[in-house]
Amino acid sequence: MSTFPKATKQRSRKEPRFLHLARTFYGDAFGARRVRDLSAAMAEWSELTDDEQSFTLAHLHYLGLLAQAQTQKLLLQVRDLLDDVAEGLEEHDDDEDGFEGLPPEPEDFDDDPLDALPPEPEVSPEHDDEPGDDAGGEE
């Protein structure tokens, strides 16, 4: 069994758990800053068994999901704080006659910014090639 990955770091109080885990287990391999270090990490990766590589990839995906969940939680907290600020501004606007603060919201303003995102593109399993990619090779 390989020695990849090596746990090496202490967690700081401000560092999220998912980031600490990723840096602890994979920082030496994926955080390489020099070509020599990256080559060494690639050599270690190639020495892993298929099961070890599969587990490592699954673990990295899991850490990515944890990161997405934490990001979503923080974005919801930011939205709630912005709503509180907006309410405070509205109260201040109502209390002060003649207050010329923020311009009025456009009529087509959407309260939920997530609804304004474009839909994700659909992926067709029949066409894996990129547009313009000639899978037949050169003639």
Give a quick set of tags describing it.
single chain, 139 residues, mainly alpha, elongated
Structure commentary:
With 139 residues, the chain is mainly α. The protein has helices spanning 17-30, 35-47, 50-95. The protein contains three helices and no strands. The two termini are 46 Å apart. The mean pLDDT is 75.
Layout of helices and strands, plus pairs?
Layout: H1 17-30, H2 35-47, H3 50-95
Helix pairs in contact: 1-3
Radius of gyration: 25 Å
Q: Unreliable stretches, pLDDT < 50, 5 or more residues? A: none
Give me the count of strands. 0
Mean pLDDT: 75
What would you call the shape?
Answer: elongated
User: Main β-sheet: number of strands, strand sense, barrel status?
Assistant: none
Strand content: under 5%
Helical residue percent?
40-55%
Q: What structural category characterises the helix and strand content?
A: mainly alpha
**H/E element sequence:** HHH
* Tally of DSSP helical segments: 3
Termini separation = 46 Å
